[in-house]
Amino acid sequence: MADVQGAREEAEVEVVVAHRERATLRVGEVFLKIDADQARTDVEVEAMAMAPVPTPRVLWRKPPVLALAALPGTALGRLGEPSTASAAAWAAAGAAARMLHDAPSPPWAGRSLDQVASRLDGECEWLLANGVLPTDLVTRNRRVAEAALRWWTPVFTHGDLQVAHVFIDGDEVTGVIDWSEAGPGDALFDLAILTLGHQERLSDVVAGYGADVDLDVIRGWWSLRSLEAIRWLIEHGFDPFAPGCEVDVLRSRL
C-alpha cells in the first residue's frame, strides 16, 4: 500500500501557470510547457542554447509541448511578496545579468524604441478610456516612463527577467527560466524587471552587475512595464492590484 501511495504522489500534476496563451505543468522533476505559438518556443530553445548562464535542460520537444528538467534551488523571490534571499544572492543575480548582457546578441530582432513607445501610448489610452486607473496616476507614470524611451545599445536580454524566473541555492544562481521573450534589447530593462516590486534590492543587483547604471532609466522601466502589463494581466486572469504588484509600483512613483 505504501508503494502504491508513493507512486500516486509522484504522479501528481501541478499547474504552475495557465492562461489563454500558454500553460506550464510540473510532474515531479519535469516541467511541461504548452504553447500554441511555436515561434515563442523556438526562441526559448535557441536562447537557452546561447545563454552563458545556467538554464533548464531540454528533455524533449513535441509541439506544442516542451519538456524541461527542473532547476535546483528556489526562486529568488515573488512579485508581491518580500524576498528572503540574501543581499549576496541578489548581487549574484545582477552578476548573471551582466554575464548575459556581455554575450553575443541573438540574431533575431528585438523590440524597437518606436514599438515600445507606441505600445506604451496605446496601453495608457486603454487604461484611461476604461477607467482602470486614475488619470493622475497614469499621467505621472507616463512622464516617469519617458526616461526609458531613449536610444540604447542592443544586448542579449532575457526579456522577462522576473524575480521568480531566477533560481538560487544559498547565495548562488542555479539557473534562469522562461526565455521566450529573449532577444536584443536594453540591458537596463532586464535590471528593472528583476527589481520590479523589490526596489529596496536594486543596490544589491547593481553591485553585482558591476557597472554604472542610470537609475532614472530603471525607474522609467518600472513605470513603463507596469503601465503596459496591466491590461494583459487583467485579461488573462491575474490581479495587478494585488499588494506589491504593478499598481502599487505605479503608486510608489507619486
TrEMBL record:
InterPro entries: AGP_Transferase (IPR051678), Aminoglycoside_PTrfase (IPR002575), Kinase-like_dom_sf (IPR011009). It comes from the Bacteria. It holds the Pfam family APH. Residues 47-212 form the Aminoglycoside phosphotransferase domain. PANTHER family: AMINOGLYCOSIDE PHOSPHOTRANSFERASE DOMAIN-CONTAINING PROTEIN-RELATED, AMINOGLYCOSIDE PHOSPHOTRANSFERASE-RELATED-RELATED. This is Phosphotransferase.
